[in-house]
Amino acid sequence: MRWFFLLCMVVALMQAPAFAYSGKVVSVDEGDAITVLHDNKKKRVRLYGIDAPEPRQSYGKKSKEFLGSFVKGERVDIEPKKADKNGRTMGIVSLGGDNINELMVVNGQAWVHRPSCKEDFCEKWVKMEEAAKATRAGLWSEPGAVPPWEFRRAGKR
Question: Which PROSITE patterns does the record cross-reference, listed alphabetically (predicted)?
Answer without folding.
Answer: TNASE_3
